[in-house]
Write a structure and sequence with these properties.
21% of the residues lie in helices and 16% in strands. By secondary structure, it is an alpha+beta fold. It folds into two domains: 75 residues, Ubiquitin-like (UB roll); 125 residues, Alpha-Beta Plaits (2-Layer Sandwich). Strands 2-1-5-3-4 form a five-stranded mixed β-sheet, sandwiched between helices. The chain has a two-stranded antiparallel ribbon with strand order 6-9. Strand 1 and strand 2 form a beta hairpin. Helix 2 packs antiparallel against helix 3. The radius of gyration is 19 Å and the shape is globular. It binds iron/sulfur cluster (SF4). The site of iron/sulfur cluster has 13 residues, from helix 4.
Length: 222
């Protein structure tokens, strides 16, 4: 595979063809925010938080899934990028309902940290009723508060592609879309045991360890 020359935020570098903008930026120590990205898995680009400006391109591009090309000039924090990220975070916050500020999971909420970084306040948009879901505490390992879910799909992919369990999927369509187990059945302890991989990857606090269960990094459980 050949190498290509690119520039990111004024820094020139040579990377292998096929490298994503996110990977190239990371190699330079430049942080591009992400919510849906899982290092090592095929990127999906669903959250759009990682958008960057590429000179010559009319539209902003998702850094996590866009491969570099020779001569590419990328800006990761231009006014256009920052303005777009603020709207994206605001839209994601619209889907992230419920009382997070007083929730013990708030400190683990990467979305709220992003909102703080980008000075995004309360969203201007109305929430559609189907976005509210009752908190599920029937599973002894995972507590689910899907009103806070932004459908980033990380739990689905971590369960399928890292834990190889395939317990979760996205069910329904449009505003009714939600993470489901089976045909939207309760997440029983028979189906979902104690690996905790979904909790570890959830960026919003929608998933947390049930009381009495502690999921440790890497999926080990104590
Ligand atoms: S539950 Fe968490 S990890 Fe799963 S899709 Fe929702 S926000 Fe993403």
């Amino acid at each position: 595979m050949s190498n290509v020359n690119i520039s990111i935020d004024g820094k020139s570098l040579k990377v292998r063809d096929g490298t994503t903008i996110l990977e190239a930026a990371t190699s330079l120590g430049i942080t591009i925010p992400t919510l849906c990205h899982i290092k090592g898995l095929i990127p999906t680009g669903v959250c759009r938080v990682c958008v960057v400006e590429v000179e010559g391109s009319k539209t902003l591009m998702g850094a996590c899934h866009t491969p570099v090309s020779n001569g590419m000039v990328v800006h990761t924090g231009s006014p256009r990028v920052v303005a777009a990220r603020r709207v994206i975070v605001e839209l994601l916050l619209t889907a992230h309902t419920g009382d997070c500020v007083n929730d013990t999971n708030a400190e683990n909420c990467k979305l709220h940290n992003l909102a703080s970084d980008y000075q995004v306040g309360a969203p201007r948009f109305n929430v559609k009723a189907p976005r509210f879901h009752p908190i599920e505490e029937s599973n002894p390992y995972v507590r689910r508060d899907l009103s806070k879910c932004v459908l980033c799909r990380k739990c689905v992919r971590a369960c399928a592609d890292i834990a190889h369990k395939n317990i979760l999927s996205i069910g329904y369509r449009g505003f009714r879309s939600k993470v489901v187990s089976g045909f939207d059945e309760p997440l029983t302890s028979e189906a979902c045991r104690d690996c905790g991989i979904c909790i570890e990857h959830c960026p919003t606090g929608a998933l947390s360890a049930a009381p009495g269960f502690k999921a440790l990094k890497g999926g080990a459980v104590r």
